[in-house]
């Protein structure tokens, strides 16, 4: 199916808002004035807590929800304004996968994958060959005649992916597709999505509440909080230099830099009187990620630095490190200035008396 | 028991089967689409038409509120208009069908509403029309429940069919009343009851067997 690989389409949210009206009057704004461009052919992650509006935003990209203000353009077509047959035609260019897979229990693997093709009125013989291709693509040849109840979660999501790809869409929307899966299965499903993105060139827009998912496959990320995009950019930039507290909160879970529990109770926001330790998060990005900065700090400023937690990882292919250290609070400002001068990012997390 | 009585019993069983079969068939023909419509026409559903839904719901409830024996006599003019006569076994099919339609509609409505809304969403995301969603998603997914519901409907109709003697409908119930009760022949009554029990058991078993066959929701140790 790669011989006529469809090109991905961009998704543009233009000052999009979505307000829900309660039956008893009063409105709740789920998405508020969001402007975001999802690049064609890229994998973009939207991350947010539950209730942040990410699901509503995603569902506006295929018209499952309609914006109450602004525009949603997929490949230049206005999804929010499309109706009836025109909307259904757009939807065939936009595949979607779901957290709970949403497979028909009454149909086999092959039958489920055939459904969007039947809906699109593809001739039976063509459906057969196309379904066989897709089943092979997602590695379920042995399960073709099984029913969803007989499959594992990972296998079900593979069926979901094959079904979403059946009509050769330009965009794939992923609604928490790995949230119901165990970590190992999550990895294999993410790998499959990455392969598909690379081979077919289609745009993938995914929503998740797990930063690890974004780190592992997304080249771009947008952080949504309370219906607004609070931060957006390449995954590397957002991970290495997060600005918004929500972003930092999400990152603290994924980068192995949460405070050790013995410190959690003791840390305070203001510097106490008398001798104290300052707890600093140091972020190493780019070429500095592998520099022996702490050794240099000790040598040049004569400081004793305690390492509390840390991790070095890769985002894409670029190294990126994160350390939690504590040092003499009276020298804190000097140390931070020194580190910043050398291209590292610092953040004061608090003080321990 | 005389050969004559045995013949009567065989004939009556055939008449009961005839009435129940035709009224189930007609009841499903009208009840299935009505039930689907009731399920999907509520506010915010696939074919949102809350007012039509409300009116139809009222009609269905009203019909179901009328005791069957009263329904039978109340609609005699209607029965005559449809069947050409208001007495006899064929005429009895009219009230049986009128009773079956709302009953089956409610059973189908419940079965359709049990279908996971995520499946409707997935089908909408594929670009399916409402009619495609009904035909390819809702009805097939609800089929195990619909089958069990129809089984229940058939069992109820077997019971109702015993009352149509009031308008000259024949069948097992009528035989039981006329011979077993009015002519003091308890052995006939006993045989009628036994045949009815066997019929209901058969219907129930066959219904459950079919429902299990079409139900793919739980794994069933299919041979590798």
TrEMBL record, chain A:
It comes from Celeribacter baekdonensis. Belongs to the ABC transporter superfamily. This is Cell division ATP-binding protein FtsE. The keyword ATP-binding applies. The keyword Ribosomal protein does not apply. Residues 11-251 form the ABC transporter domain. One of its GO terms (molecular function) is ATP hydrolysis activity. It comes from the Bacteria. Keywords: Amino-acid transport, ATP-binding, Cell membrane, Membrane, Nucleotide-binding, Translocase, Transport. Part of the ABC transporter FtsEX involved in cellular division. Important for assembly or stability of the septal ring. One of its GO terms (cellular component) is plasma membrane. Pfam families: ABC_tran (PF00005), NIL (PF09383).
UniProtKB/TrEMBL annotation, chain B:
The chain crosses the membrane at residues 17-40, 52-76, 82-105, 142-168, 188-212. Keywords: Cell membrane, Membrane, Transmembrane, Transmembrane helix, Transport. It is found in: Cell membrane. One of its GO terms (biological process) is D-methionine transmembrane transport. SUPFAM superfamilies: MetI-like. CDD domains: TM_PBP2 (cd06261). InterPro entries: AA_ABC_Transporter_Permease, MetI-like, MetI-like_sf. One of its GO terms (cellular component) is plasma membrane. It holds the Pfam family BPD_transp_1. Signal peptide: none annotated. Gene3D superfamilies: MetI-like (1.10.3720.10). Its main location: membrane. It is a multi-pass membrane protein. Residues 13-204 form the ABC transmembrane type-1 domain. It comes from the Bacteria. Belongs to the binding-protein-dependent transport system permease family. CysTW subfamily. This is D-methionine transport system permease protein. It comes from Celeribacter baekdonensis. The lineage of its organism: Bacteria, Pseudomonadati, Pseudomonadota, Alphaproteobacteria, Rhodobacterales.
